[in-house]
Amino acid sequence: MAPVTTPPPPGSMTVPPLFGWEGILTVVALMLIVAVSYLVILASRTSKDSRSEWHAFLDARSSRPGSAATNSEGPAIARSGDMGPTSR
Q1: Number of helical H runs and strand E runs in the chain
Q2: How many angstroms separate the most distant Cα atoms in the chain?
Q3: Is residue 69 a contact partner of residue 77, using CB atoms and an 8 Å limit?
Q4: pTM given for the model
Q5: How far apart are alpha carbons 8 and 49 in whole angstroms?
């Protein structure tokens, strides 16, 4: 005759909560890691090229350091750093 087993106490789990899902969870986690690393590598590669383009754009926008901007009506427009001859 087989020995009588004692029933588990109420609330105890006899089956793990992720039973059968460990493989699926592992595959999804690996895919997520690969996707994030791909995006990081892609972002770092494009930032080098776009940075030089950005600097070229800013250099093209910049005015030469001795030229005063003029309005179409004639008088020169003071830049934010120019306070005029009385600011000394």
Answers
A1: 1, 0
A2: 113
A3: yes
A4: 0.41
A5: 65
